[in-house]
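re: ur question from yesterday

yeah so i grabbed the chain u mentioned. its 180 aa long if i counted rite. heres the sequnce exactly as i have it in my notes:
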Amino acid sequence: MGLEKEWNELLTEKEKIPYLDAWFDIVKYDKTIAIWPMAGNGLDFKRSPNSLWYENLIGAIVERTENNIFIFGHPKDFYISGDNYKYNRVTNFNNLDFFEQVKMTLGCSLMIGTDAGSSLLIATYNLIPQICLLTNWQRNHNSNFLALSPLSDKCINIFKKDNINLISIEEIIESIKVLK
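ran it thru and got these structure tokens back, copy pasting raw so excuse formatting
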């Protein structure tokens, strides 16, 4: 009997999805979107939209919603500042340690991220909705394009083949409205 067959027979559907309980206090940040812009500790540009794409996304969120934006990630990630936006509702927290960033993210209204560890981890708590930005960045990744997406019923996956920068800002804004 192969390991996959044993796994499928021994575990319930619920047990096949990673799950964590928050054993720590979570501070709520109403009308706040957590954005984790980069994958791979700020070094993997194939899996993440570029800084200009994020500047356009953040500008659209500020202009078209009432949400504040918290930026999280590795200190090597490109820096996105609220100074560029007339409403100044953008705050960068990538200077905090990872655990503090996770706790703050869990208190936000929703998260936008890539197929990075942060998105996978936040999904295991199943506390907030997510938008996961995906592309086929791995060599020979020609099928099962959602294989690297978070396993959560609260996640909208948005995939663009071969170039993650082609994901429509409008599709993100519409997804934010759906997840509200």
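noticed a couple things. The CA atoms of residues 44 and 112 lie 17 Å apart. also The longest helix spans residues 51-64.
anyway ttyl
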